[in-house]
Amino acid sequence: AQSVTQLDSHVSVSEGTPVLLRCNYSSSYSPSLFWYVQHPNKGLQLLLKYTSAATLVKGINGFEAEFKKSETSFHLTKPSAHMSDAAEYFCVVSPWGFQKLVFGTGTRLLVSP
Amino acid sequence: GAVVSQHPSWVICKSGTSVKIECRSLDFQATTMFWYRQFPKQSLMLMATSNEGSKATYEQGVEKDKFLINHASLTLSTLTVTSAHPEDSSFYICSARVPGGQIYNEQFFGPGTRLTVL
Question: Do the chains contact at B109 and A44, CB–CB below 8 Å?
Answer without folding.
Answer: yes
